[in-house]
């Protein structure tokens, strides 16, 4: 199988991390979605990563669908098959955090065509997205003891993804909530290849 991704997309990272946890070792092809490379446009008409090309030619798109496939191909008894509603609730909060962060970055691209230019960040919609990130991380912080330190399931991978994407895109942001328990948890989680080897760059 081949995974089309880039090194900054939190959605592509989630797909890759889930495949690693499932024991898969996909060939990775790095692409720039903004440049509409042929490999990506042929694989995914939506022109975004991730896209997973299976050995039989089937193409899966969207992070959560690839995550579902990773769960399906994981060994029986795998921690990826944990459907604990409390963990799914945490995963939902983390995924909302990721989507809010990506929304702001997309807004920057639309307004300034430059992800480093922060004019869009003053828009009321951007302020709402920051509030969503802040409140979601605060709620996850209160449930940090539910996260495993060495078994990276969907919830753990999404939370790690959310925190590190936020810090990657908004370094030193004064609106980032204090999440000492999650920060300590993440330091432990970084020992796992699915987290350590997929950090955004």
Automatic annotation (TrEMBL):
It comes from the Bacteria. Residues 1-78 form the GST N-terminal domain. This is GST N-terminal domain-containing protein. The lineage of its organism: Bacteria, Pseudomonadati, Pseudomonadota, Alphaproteobacteria, Rhodobacterales.
């Amino acid at each position: 199988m081949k995974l089309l991704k880039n090194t900054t997309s939190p959605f592509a990272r989630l797909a890759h991390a889930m495949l690693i946890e499932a024991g898969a070792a996909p060939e990775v092809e790095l692409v720039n979605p903004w440049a509409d490379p042929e490999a990506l446009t042929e694989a995914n008409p939506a022109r975004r990563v991730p896209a997973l090309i299976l050995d039989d030619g089937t193409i899966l798109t969207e992070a959560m669908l690839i995550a579902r496939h990773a769960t399906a191909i994981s060994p029986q008894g795998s921690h990826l098959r944990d459907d604990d509603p409390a963990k799914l609730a945490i995963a939902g909060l983390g995924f909302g955090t990721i989507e809010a962060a990506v929304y702001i970055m997309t807004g920057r691209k639309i307004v300034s065509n430059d992800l480093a230019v922060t004019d869009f960040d003053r828009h009321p919609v951007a302020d709402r997205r920051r509030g969503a990130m802040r409140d979601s991380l605060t709620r996850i912080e209160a449930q940090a003891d539910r996260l495993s330190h060495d078994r990276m399931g969907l919830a753990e991978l999404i939370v790690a993804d959310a925190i590190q994407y936020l810090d990657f895109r908004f370094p030193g942001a004064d609106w980032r909530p204090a999440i000492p328990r999650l920060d300590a948890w993440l330091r432990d989680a970084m020992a796992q290849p699915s987290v350590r080897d997929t950090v955004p760059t």
